[in-house]
Structure formats: C-alpha cells, structure tokens
Amino acid sequence: MYMVSKVVSATPYGFHGQLIEIEGDISRGLPGLQIVGLGNKAIDESRDRVRSAIKNSLLDFPKGKITINLAPAELPKDGTQFDLPIALAILCLGKQLPQTALEGALFAGELALNGSLRPIRSAITIAETAKRHGISTIYLPASNSEQALLIPDITVIPINNLTELFLHLKQEKPIRPAVKTRQQYHQKKRGIIIDDIRGQEQAKRAVAIAVAGRHNILLSGPPGSGKTMLARALNSLLPPLSDAEIIEVTKLHNLDGNQVSHDIVTDRPFRTPHHTASRISMVGGGAKATPGEISLAHHGTLFLDELLEYPRTTLESLRQPLEDKQIIISRAQGKYYYPANFMLVATMNPCPCGYLGDPEKSCRCSSTQILNYQKRLSGPLLDRIDLTINVSRVAHEDLLSRNSSSDSQQKQFENMIKVARTLQTNRYSNSNKYNADIDSSSVDKIAALTAEAKQFLLAAAKKLDLSARGYFKVIKVARTIADLESSLEITIPHVAESLQYRQIIPT
User: Fold this and answer.
1) Which residues contact 472 (CB under 8 A, 6 or more apart)?
2) pLDDT at position 257, please?
3) 326-385 confidence digits (pLDDT tens)
4) CATH number for the domain including 421?
5) Are 155 and 200 found together in one domain?
6) How many separate domains does the chain show?
7) How far, in Å, CA of 56 to CA of 52, rounded?
8) Residue ranges of the alpha helices (H) in 256-395?
C-alpha cells in the first residue's frame, strides 16, 4: 500500500503570505498520524482535531502509518488553518476523495471536533496569496468569506462543516460561491470633533494642515491646555479609507495575533500605546515577529500622549520608520517586512512640572531639570516632526463662551481638507501619496516656490540654522498650506506660516 496526496494551503509570512503544500503519505505499519515540516504546537495538536472531525463527520479514517509533510519544510508555520487541508489529504489517502477534486484550489480552515469549521486568522492574506500564485478558487470557513472577498477576482467557497465540503468535492451537493454584499459595518461612537474645543484657533489650524498633508505634529503646552483633545479631534478630520487601504489595514490587524478576527477594518486606525509600552510592542517583533503599534497605525495615526515619558530607546526606534514608512524585523529564520506609513501625533509638557512659559502659573523646575527633561527628545527625532506648536491655556472667559456663528468649524476644515486632498490626488497621479511623502529630489519640481518666497526661505533657513531635512519639511508644509487655499504657487505667506510651525520648545 503506497500513495501520496497533495493539498495546497497558505500561511502568513510577514505582511505577505507563503503557499504551503500539504503532502500526505500512507504506508504499512502501526496506525498513527505524524505531522512534520516545522509546525508549531497548534499544528502538532491538529492530529487529534482532524481525527475526531473525520470520525464525527461519519467518514472513515484510514488505517496505516500516515505522514503529513508541510512543505517547504524549512519555513516556520503557525496557525490552525492547516486542519482542513490535512483532513482532505487524509481522506484522499483513504481513497474517499479523488486527487483531481483537490487540484487548482486552496484550502484553509480550523476544524472543531464535530467537523464544523471555525474562523481562522488572516483569511485576507491567504486569499491574496492564492491570487498572487494564480489560484482563483479558495475554500474557507463561511465566517471568513466576507473578508476574503475584499480581494478581487477570487472565487470563495464558504464552508460550514467537513461533511458539506466532502459532498461538494464529490459533486453530489455543490456549494454556491460566496457573493460580496454591501455589509452594514458597525459605526463607531461619535468622538471628539473640532467644534468641541474652545479657543486654540492657531492649534486647530495646525491640526488641519497636519491632516491635509499627512504631516507629523507635536503639541507642546502646560497641563489642561487641550493638547489631548486636539489630538483626538484630529482623528475626526481624517478622510475615509480607500478600498486598497482597507485591504492593507485589515491584513495588518489580522496579523496582530491577539485574537482571531474575521471583521473588516473600515475606520482609520488611531493607536494610543501607553508610555510604558516596550520597544518591541512599538516596532514589532517577539517570538512570532508580529507587527507593532507603528504598523497597526498604518494609514492612520500613532498618538503618543506625553511623548517625553516614553523610554528613549522606544522613541529612537521610531526614527527609521518615520523616514522609510516601513519596518523590517530580522530573525534567525528570516526577515519580516511590515508597512508603517503612519502620521505621528504627539503631545508633551515643556518641563517636568509643565508650566514653563505659562503666563499665569510660574514654573517650579530648575534649569538643569528642564534641560534633562527636554533632552529626552533627541534632535534627529524632533527634526522628523513637520509641525511643532506651543499650545497655551485657554482663558476661563473663553471656556464659558460659545461660538455664536452657525457655521461648523468641523465642516469648514473638512471641506478645506477635501480640496487639498483632491489637489494632491491629481498631483500624484491618483495614488495615496500626500505632500509629506514627497522625496527631497522631487521637491523643486512638485513644490515650486516663487522667486520672492525662495529668497525669503533662504534668509530664514540661515537665521534659524535649519537642517537639510528641516528645510525641505518647511517647503512640504508650505505646499499643504497653499493647497488648503487652492493656490498653485507657494508664496511668502505660505512659507512664513510654515516657518511658524518649526517653533523651538521654550527653554
């Protein structure tokens, strides 16, 4: 007795996926099931799940020595999605299914002991992997079908249990492919908006500029000045995710590994890690090399409240991702790539007590304490922040007063940002690029200054001793300010306002 069966599946590997070929062999010997191919504990335990699922589905478990190989054998494998293809390989070895019924398709799913299918992690990554390798039909748990259908030109066969799939493959009771429906996604509760904030007109303006051009922003000011509210209101101004962005964000959040999710992420991420978060939790890594907060904030916002309270090593680890928009995690078994195109929004106090430069309350900190506190934020990291603004406390009279105007400031900002975003979409050939993404070599061509504005900037750059990175960031922010006004040229007022947002933290 000798036979080999083959079933195709897939596993996440970094941001992308890897095809896995499940090979089954049965031979004479003591009855048993052995799984090889560098699988983890969950895969090793699938032996018992598969055996029970086959028996409880009233199918025959073949007698003999069965060996299952997950190829390529040198690639580490994780997850429970191999239960289903292992079961099919075994049924094929027992001649209950023909090998031809398993060809040209990809199978993935976790089996319950009664033979039903449970949702798996990273169904969207598996579907994308199948498409990339020319496989047009995939079999997944029914609860994962909506997510997999985000990938175009893929036929998804939803499965509820092993018996149902067996009858389908035997062509006795075909299963209809899943159809993409206009699902009503759960709407988030109303958060803080610009209209909820009293005063702080300059800071609101800076927030609108940051959103329009996707610029990193740092808000500095005393306690109670509204820094955190401004940062959270910023999230309400962000445009909705595009279809391509929804796929990327959903993939990343399914790779997180904290829970199995078959949901589709439709809201822009707004990640708020605590200041005690480790460097690994921030940039990614660990035993399974999972994405960190910077990747989970991809196409969204990473909000660091009280920036200087974070460990210095954690802050410095943000320098490279802020430039490259990605993170590469190197491990002995390979390199894992994750995108990290996020907007950094941070708040900080100017000193330990928080009242440095406050007109109403005097600072109690010594010059040494202030210096040591501010040194926690390195110059290279500060240089990577596009807008820095000092937020002062709002007068008590302004806190009690309401804007008598019927016009919503939130709506005004949304309309301005929409105009600026449209200009950027046309400028960058309908891509998802923003002004903040312009590389230095393209600045002169894309963000051309008038002759007067160029002379003004050169004089200011010498006076302020701007670095090369700071010089180009001034131009990028000026380009966004011009877009908010629908101006094709960058003039002196645009540059002057941009320079205001390169403020030095008070000392």
Assistant:
1) 440, 443
2) 62
3) 999 987 777 899 999 999 999 999 999 999 988 888 999 999 999 999 999 998 999 999
4) 3.40.50.300
5) no
6) 2
7) 6
8) 279-283, 293-296, 312-316, 319-324, 367-374, 379-383
